[in-house]
Write a structure and sequence with these properties.
This protein is α/β, with parallel strands linked by helices. The protein contains twelve helices and ten strands. The protein has an eight-stranded parallel beta barrel with strand order 3-4-5-6-7-8-9-10, surrounded by five helices. A two-stranded antiparallel ribbon has the order 1-2. Helix 2 crosses helix 3 and helix 3 runs parallel beside helix 4.
Length: 297
C-alpha cells in the first residue's frame, strides 16, 4: 500500500488508516475486531486511529494488537466526553491520557490529539499545555488537533501541533481552501476523517444515523453523476478525490467488516484521481455550496 510522510513527524503512513470509532459505537464483538484489525495489519495498513470516548474501542485495540505494537502507528484523542460538562478540565484530561495508555496496553502512542475543542479553548492554552506535558513525559511522540473550520485553522497557525485531523470529502470541502493549505505551508501532517462522506448515498435513502444526515442532504444538492451508478465505483471516486487533495497524507476509514480491507485497497488500484475529474468535483462544490456548509466534526 502506498505510503506518504505525515508532515514534519516523518512517519511514513499508509494512505488508508483504520478509524476505530465504529467498533466501539456499534458494539462489535471482540472476535470480529480481532480478525478485522489483525487482517488490516497483515494487508499492510499501518495506521490505527481511535479516541478515549469511542466506548471500548481502545480496550479492544489493546487486546487485539498490543503484541504487534512495532507494526503500526497508534493515534488516539483526549478531552471529548460530552456527558461530562467539565471534560476539558486539565486534570481530568491528564487522567484520560493515562487511562488510554492502559487500555491500549502501551506506554506511548505515536500521536495524541485534542478532540474537537473550540477555538476559544485553544486560544486559552490550557488544553494545549496538557498534551504538551504528555509529550514531554514521553506518553506520545507527537501532538495534534482533530477538528474543523476556524478552530482547525487556528490550530495550524498557532504552531503548537504536528498534525491536523480534519473532515475532507466530496461533501465536505471547506478545509480544502482553509486549514489544509496552511498545514502544508507549515509542514503539518494532515489526516482526512470521514473521507467518503460516510457513504451517505449508498442505500438511496436517507441514512438512519443522524451523523450522516448533513452529508445526505448536501449530496442531494450536489447531484454528482458518478454516484448514480454502482456503489463501489462511486466510493472509489470519492476516496480517490480525498486522497488527491494537496496536503492530505492519509485517510481514516472505518468498518466493522473484516473482509472490507481488501475491498478498500482494491478501490485505489486505479491510482490517483485524474486532475480533470478532481477539478470537476471541485467546480460543482464551488457552484452549489453555501457559506453554511461548514466542516462537519
Amino acid at each position: 500500500m502506498e505510503k506518504r510522510t505525515l508532515g514534519k513527524t516523518g512517519m511514513a503512513v499508509t494512505i488508508l488508516g483504520y478509524g476505530a470509532a465504529e467498533i466501539g459505537f456499534q458494539s462489535v464483538p471482540f472476535e470480529t475486531v480481532n480478525q478485522l484489525i489483525n487482517g488490516a495489519l497483515d494487508a499492510g495498513l499501518n495506521v490505527i486511529d481511535t479516541a478515549e470516548c469511542y466506548v471500548n474501542s481502545e480496550e479492544m485495540i489493546g487486546q487485539a494488537v498490543a503484541g504487534r505494537r512495532s507494526e503500526y502507528f497508534l493515534f488516539t484523542k483526549c478531552g471529548h466526553e460530552p456527558e461530562d460538562k467539565d471534560h476539558w478540565n486539565p486534570a481530568k484530561m491528564a487522567k484520560q491520557i493515562d487511562r488510554s495508555l492502559q487500555r491500549l496496553r502501551t506506554d506511548r502512542v505515536d500521536l495524541l490529539q485534542l478532540h474537537t475543542c473550540s477555538e476559544e479553548q485553544l486560544r486559552q492554552g490550557e488544553v494545549i499545555d496538557v498534551v504538551r506535558r504528555a509529550r514531554d513525559a514521553g506518553k506520545t511522540r507527537f501532538i495534534g488537533y482533530s477538528g474543523d473550520g476556524a478552530a482547525a485553522l487556528y490550530a495550524v497557525e498557532c504552531g503548537a501541533f504536528d498534525v491536523l485531523q480534519t473532515s475532507v470529502s466530496i461533501a465536505d470541502q471547506e478545509n480544502i481552501g482553509l486549514a489544509i493549505p496552511a498545514a502544508k505551508a507549515r509542514g503539518v501532517g494532515v489526516i482526512a476523517k470521514r473521507p467518503i462522506a460516510n457513504a451517505a448515498w449508498k442505500t438511496g435513502a436517507k441514512p438512519e444515523q443522524a451523523y450522516s444526515h448533513t452529508y445526505w442532504e448536501r449530496l442531494g444538492k450536489l447531484d454528482y453523476q458518478f454516484l448514480k451508478g454502482d456503489l463501489l465505483p462511486g466510493i472509489a471516486t470519492a476516496l480517490r478525490f480525498t486522497l488527491a487533495v494537496d496536503g492530505v497524507h492519509t485517510a481514516i476509514v472505518g468498518t466493522t467488516r473484516p473482509d472490507r480491507w481488501a475491498q478498500n485497497a482494491a478501490l485505489l488500484d486505479a491510482g490517483p484521481l485524474d486532475r480533470e475529474t478532481f477539478e470537476a468535483i471541485r467546480a460543482i462544490w464551488q457552484a452549489v455550496a453555501t457559506p453554511e456548509w461548514l466542516g462537519q466534526t
